[in-house]
């Protein structure tokens, strides 16, 4: 059962998330009234009145974003008239904003703005010191510095007031989820900060009904969402943890997909429920629990297995390539993203008409190893074919010449055997068959030698690796995103390493 949410609508903005100190409701209404009037004054170009309004809003509720808005009012007044005191006030309030919110998401951007304004202040002061006043006597008030246009850097510098979103609940210290509980806790009430776009806000507290609302960002308003949580004695409460943080949790129907990640706590209907906790590289954990109304239950899943990393094979023409991991087909075509256990693995990429790529890679847990493969074309074997043809030609010529040499040898032997006296009488030494036979025999031997050399060359051409090899560029990226909640902030923490 979901509770109805009572809320007052103002705005959603950019940047940082921080807790909201509990203060009376009338203080928040006072801040709202002052904020709304300040926005109207700012749009009308009444920068002094707008700055005063945002200061009154800050006096009512100490949201650091209000100090930033005061700074933007002085910033725009200084930009409009090249007014040094206004620029100095803008710098002062920007610094106060960063002091009150040292973990502001836009800290770098604001520090850059401070640097640009300080440079502009110095420029205007130097111009004022070196330029005489315009006119003379009592009519000569002002200086050229008051007439000059802002510098290009100041002209490009964006400055406008920001809105704010506040999420509160009754009772406080409820868990806030954004869009889905699958993402894990976002913060606890009370909370203030900024969001962009439309979001589903889920507020849950043990023993109370869940509240669900939808908020849409408006960068010019103050948006306050207050959830009044009704007691819910008909539900039970469950705490789910595992030795692998971030394991997926399924309940009752695995086909419905995971509803959250460990660690997770929630209200749950009484009765028998089946829970599955899974993580890549680990065996599945399953447990059935009988939930009792008003009772507290725990699941402490111990997952057995090894942590995994991911390998991502990409590259030009990868869609026509087959990817193998440790000799087994991982993807029939790329790109290929696979989870593998940590350790050494052999990645092989093959493609018809291209040289294969193979590399032994060490995959680390909780990392993504990206391999950008560039396959080189297989070289033509035309030179080997020509060499084989020449070898065959030389071999055939050698056989022919050898047969001719044997022919003359046989004729000479036959002449000796046919002597008229019954005695072997050799032919005349001047018989030309002696010379021809020797010539054919020498030519045959030489031709066979050439055939052998050419055949060896053909074999070399067949197996040699011509041209550049296939290559791969490896990039190892460790990426971890975890929910984080602290006294001064709430949101998602991210660590990236290359």
Sheet with most strands: 5 strands, mixed
Which CATH C-level class of the largest domain is it?
Mainly Alpha
Radius of gyration: 43 Å
Helix share of residues?
25-40%
Instruction: Record the strand order, biggest sheet.
Output: 1-9-8-5-6
What is the general shape? elongated
Q: What fold name goes in the CATH topology slot of the largest domain? A: Serine Threonine Protein Phosphatase 5, Tetratricopeptide repeat
**CATH architecture identity of the largest domain:** Alpha Horseshoe
Notes on the protein architecture:
By secondary structure, this protein is an alpha+beta fold. The chain folds into 4 domains: 2-223, Tetratricopeptide repeat domain (Serine Threonine Protein Phosphatase 5, Tetratricopeptide repeat, Alpha Horseshoe); 233-301, Immunoglobulin-like (Sandwich), CATH 2.60.40; 308-374, Carboxypeptidase-like, regulatory domain (Immunoglobulin-like); 382-463. It has 8 helices and 26 strands. It has helices at residues 25-43, 47-60, 64-81, 84-100, 107-130, 152-156, 382-417, 432-463, and strands spanning 2-3, 5-8, 18-19, 164-170, 175-178, 187-188, 191-193, 198-204, 210-216, 222-228, 236-242, 248-251, 260-261, 264-268, 271-278, 285-291, 296-301, 308-314, 322-325, 328-331, 336-341, 343-350, 357-363, 367-374, 471-485, 490-497. Strands 1-9-8-5-6 form a 5-stranded mixed beta sheet, with no helix packed on it. Strands 2-10-4-7-3 form a 5-stranded mixed beta sheet, covered by helices on one side. It has a 5-stranded mixed beta sheet with strand order 21-18-24-25-26, with no helix packed on it. 31% of the residues are buried. Residues 1-23, 136-146 and 480-498 have low confidence and may be disordered.
């Amino acid at each position: 059962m979901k509770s109805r949410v009572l809320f007052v609508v103002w705005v959603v903005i950019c940047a940082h998330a921080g807790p909201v100190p509990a203060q009376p409701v009338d203080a928040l209404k006072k801040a709202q009234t002052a904020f709304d009037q300040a926005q109207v004054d700012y749009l009308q170009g009444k920068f002094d009145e707008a700055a005063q309004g945002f200061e009154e809003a800050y006096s009512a509720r100490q949201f650091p974003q209000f100090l930033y808005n005061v700074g933007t009012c002085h910033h725009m007044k200084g930009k409009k008239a090249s007014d040094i005191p206004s620029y100095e006030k803008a710098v002062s309030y920007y610094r106060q904003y960063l002091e009150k919110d040292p973990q502001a998401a836009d800290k770098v951007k604001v520090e850059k703005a401070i640097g640009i304004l300080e440079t502009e202040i110095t420029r205007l002061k130097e111009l004022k010191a070196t330029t005489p006043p315009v006119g003379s006597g009592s009519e000569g008030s002002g200086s050229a510095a008051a007439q000059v246009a802002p510098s290009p850097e100041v002209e490009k510098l964006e400055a406008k007031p920001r809105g704010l979103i506040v999420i509160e609940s009754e009772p406080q210290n409820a868990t806030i989820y954004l869009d889905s509980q699958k993402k894990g806790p976002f913060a606890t009430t009370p909370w203030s900060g900024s969001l962009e776009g439309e979001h589903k806000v889920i507020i849950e507290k043990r023993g109370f009904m869940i509240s669900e609302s939808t908020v849409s960002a408006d960068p010019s308003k103050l948006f306050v969402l207050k959830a009044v949580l009704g007691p819910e004695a008909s539900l039970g409460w469950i705490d789910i943890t595992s030795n692998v943080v971030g394991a997926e949790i399924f309940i009752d129907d695995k086909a419905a997909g995971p509803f959250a990640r460990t660690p997770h706590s929630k209200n749950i209907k009484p009765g028998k429920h089946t829970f599955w906790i899974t993580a890549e590289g680990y065996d599945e954990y399953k447990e059935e629990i009988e939930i009792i109304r008003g009772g507290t239950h725990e699941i402490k899943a111990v997952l057995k297995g090894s942590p995994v990393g991911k390998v991502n094979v990409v590259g030009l023409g990868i869609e026509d390539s087959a990817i193998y991991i440790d000799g087994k087909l991982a993807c029939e075509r790329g790109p290929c993203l696979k989870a593998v256990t940590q350790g050494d693995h052999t990645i092989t990429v093959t493609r018809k008409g291209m040289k294969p790529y193979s590399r032994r890679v060490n995959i680390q847990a909780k990392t993504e190893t990206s391999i950008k493969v560039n396959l080189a074309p297989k070289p033509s074997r035309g030179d080997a074919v020509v060499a084989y043809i020449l070898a065959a030609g030389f071999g055939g010529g050698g056989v022919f010449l050898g047969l001719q040499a044997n022919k003359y040898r046989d004729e000479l032997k036959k002449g000796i055997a046919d002597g008229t006296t019954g005695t072997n009488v050799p032919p005349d030494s001047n018989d030309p068959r002696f010379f021809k036979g020797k010539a054919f025999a020498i030519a045959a031997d030489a031709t066979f030698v050439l055939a052998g050399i050419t055949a060896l060359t053909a074999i070399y051409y067949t197996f040699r690796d011509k041209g550049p090899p296939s290559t791969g560029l490896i990039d190892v990226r460790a990426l971890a995103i975890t929910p984080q909640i602290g006294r001064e902030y709430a949101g998602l923490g991210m660590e990236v390493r290359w």
